[in-house]
Fold these 3 entries.
Entry 1:
Amino acid sequence: MNTIHAQKGDINKADGYVAREAILTELPAPQDMARLKPLYEAALTAAEKAGAETAYFPPIPAADLNSTMFQAISLIYQTMREFQASHTNPRRIIILCDDDRVLQLYMVVWNLYYAEDKAGRMNDGRWD
């Protein structure tokens, strides 16, 4: 079963395949957000070629506007889900967030758009 999960952690301490191609220093402007799709597709393809069943991805960098991060996270999740639907690996994608604000946005976007039921929601104990 394919999974995507965002959790608290440090990408530099990940024990396994790290998608370094997806490290960003800043987010693109909203009108240029589509540039993230080929970047993440390349990182997912590299993980697949490495035979990684689990791939650790860095978080997006924090931005001043939550709406910009929300847009980026939505596009990233969509790209990851599409890739997993048509490829064998990586089956598990773990996004390691060291910034709590960024982690919370990953969870909110997942819970609003991708969780199919309550059991499929990302929750670190702060809700429900």
Note: Strands lie at 3-8, 17-18, 54-57, 92-97.
Entry 2:
Amino acid sequence: MMEEYRLSKNNDGDNFIIRNISISLEDKKRGNKFNTEFEIDVVSHNYCGKSLFIVDFNDIYIFAECLYKLNKTLSGTALIKDLSLGSQVIFSINRLGRISIEGDLYSEHKEQLLKFNFDIDQTYINDIANNLYRDLTEWHNKIHKC
């Protein structure tokens, strides 16, 4: 299990957190694409939501890599999509040069949905982009050594 990854301080109160990343190496080795799970918590304009994401490890690794590149180049997008309920999150650069974070978070059994969109200063993704990419790259290297 890995640490919590969150946006740096955001004065608007909006926030995005990835936590409790758990990777099943056995499932990954067997080719089961439902091998990684984690939670995403979002606070957007005084509304909040949480969703469990179940993905293939490659999906979250590509998301982390794209987020890292978006942070370095201020271009592109980073998308992560849950395989079970269809929750998704997209980071992109908006026309004002700020980071736009938008998505859909479904509760368990799709009983509730939080559709969200907020913009933040580019500096707020520095920690999450660098730390998530660093840690998942370490796991990526371990997985491909096996």
Note: The first strand starts at residue 5 and ends at 6.
Entry 3:
Amino acid sequence: MNKCILYLIAIVSFTISCNLNPTKTPGTGEHPGNEEAPGPPAQELLDALQGRWQNLQDSSLVIEFNDDLLIRYRGNAIQEQEKIAVFTDCISASCVTDSLTASEGWCFTEIKKSARQCNQILGCDTSTLRYRALNDDKTIFYFKKI
């Protein structure tokens, strides 16, 4: 019985941490005067992302979130490793966006040697992850938890 209750609490907690439809609140957060849609605390995003995810469009591509490190694998070989920073909203100095892409939810930035790549989380739950790159091509990536 106690295990069932703990399991239920864990599921509810994870579901809440992936809620990407918070109510818009004008002038909150780090950017006073701007209308923002903050998501849950950044640490909750980092916790929700932890682990290995297999790309649904290309099954040979796997990403792993290990604390604040993003590791990309092709097959079993590491392709690249980058630090990430997470944000409770997608309106930040690192995620410069236009009004069409500055929407609700979380963002994380890949801190590369030559540049920063901002990504917006479109959906996540215990088994799937969707995010899009907020650069010129706005590619959407689909992953399943492995």
Note: The first strand starts at residue 25 and ends at 26.
